[in-house]
Amino acid sequence: MSGAGDEEEQQKQLSLRWETKEHWPDLRKEFGVSKSGAAMILSLVTADDWVTYSRRWQHYCAPRRYQNPLYTYRRVVRAADYLDAQGLIYHAKREPGQRGWQSAMKATPELIERTNRIITAPLVIAKPAEVIVLRDKDRMPINYEETDFTYRAREEIEMINDALASIELWGCLRAPVRRIFNANFTRGGRMYAIEGAWQTMTKTDRLRIRIANEPVVEVDYATLHPALLYAEVGKYAPVDTYRLDGWPRKLTKIALNTLINAPNIHSARLAIAHHPAMSEVAESGSQEALRAASKLIADIKRVHAPIAHLFHKGKGLELQRRDSDMGVKVMLILRQAGIPVLPIHDSFLVPASKADFLEEAMWEVACEIGLDEIKFGRRSLQEWGT
């Protein structure tokens, strides 16, 4: 395999991303593969590139709740060796102990051609083994004790995924979502679509999606995290949270959100000074930019004095837990009303005819936690002039 090692950093990790139920009988008849082999074939022929995988059994030792029964050491390695022996993949096999390297494989033209010939039904992204994910500081999934919250959260996400599975969707992949928490269940918790799907598309491409054969509208909560901090201290946020005399609004927005998320003032100052938006004021990363960042921080603290004591304390993930709870409630309200909706953290995509209903649901949820003056933003292709 020429160049596989050089390109390893750019290669994709093997992910058994597609449901195999409808396709395994045909793939087994055509290639004689196991169910894991069928899932690997679907992943390989849709990757259009080298895909890495591990031949170390330790790689497959995730907590049981996250384990895909098809994705085990024995099944993956056996299937890879079988496909190799059949001449259906290009294979760079690395034996255990070669540190810094993983094995890699790529579908041959024959495998792609034969698979495309027999697969007629659309591919569907596979449901995850676990929809409530807890990660450690290294972003690795870890086990956790079940509580009333985890049982309820799992049930809610499964209801949301049932609704997502029935959406008539054009322009992007249909996918289930998971809630991902960080270190504990008070941090994070946002809904992430498997494989990214609509969430990782550009804003313009996302607005080209059609739901139920309608163009879409995206509605978001404006300045949500600052508004949540103001609600925490029993006050309302300013009408334009990011307006600060003498400073570009784009830079002020970045600086305020950096102050909310940063773990300390030094990291906040550096991040603001080095951000490309600083170039409107000074050369990013220069001593002048550092001085400007310090002055901007002081001005923001003056204007936002009621919440300044909450800055640079790493509040971002705590606020994500709050906005994720809001997002789940909005999704369940629309599910109950039979309205198809795609979640994008603090915004949502719906058919254009349902935008008013969505905004009403978002306002209802916001009012429950004291955000009755929250503002909303709407985006559509027509409004963007595209």
How would you sum up this structure, described in words?
The protein is an alpha+beta fold and 386 residues long. It folds into 2 domains: 8-118, Arc Repressor Mutant, subunit A, CATH 1.10.10; 132-225 and 317-384, ACT domain (Alpha-Beta Plaits), CATH 3.30.70. The protein has 13 helices and 13 strands. The strands form 3 sheets. Strands 6, 9, 10, 11, 12 and 13 form a 6-stranded antiparallel beta sheet that branches. Strand 7 (177-182) and strand 8 (184-193) form a beta hairpin. The longest helix is centred in the last third of the chain and has 22 residues, at 316-337. The radius of gyration is 24 Å and the shape is globular. The relative contact order is 0.10. Residues 1-10 have low confidence and may be disordered.
* Tally of separate helices: 13
Q: Please report the first level of CATH classification, the CATH class of the largest domain.
A: Alpha Beta
Oligomer: single chain
- The CATH homologous superfamily of the largest domain: ACT domain
CATH topology of the largest domain: Alpha-Beta Plaits
The description of the largest β-sheet is: 6 strands, antiparallel
- Report how far the terminal alpha carbons are from each other: 44 Å
Radius of gyration: 24 Å
Low-pLDDT stretches: 1-10
Mean pLDDT value: 92
Helix and strand sequence: EHHEHEEHEHEEEHEEHHHHHEEHEH
* Helix percentage range: 25-40%
Shape descriptor? globular
Strand percentage lies at 15-25%
Integer tally of domains: 2
Number of strands: 13
Structural class: alpha+beta
The CATH architecture of the largest domain is 2-Layer Sandwich
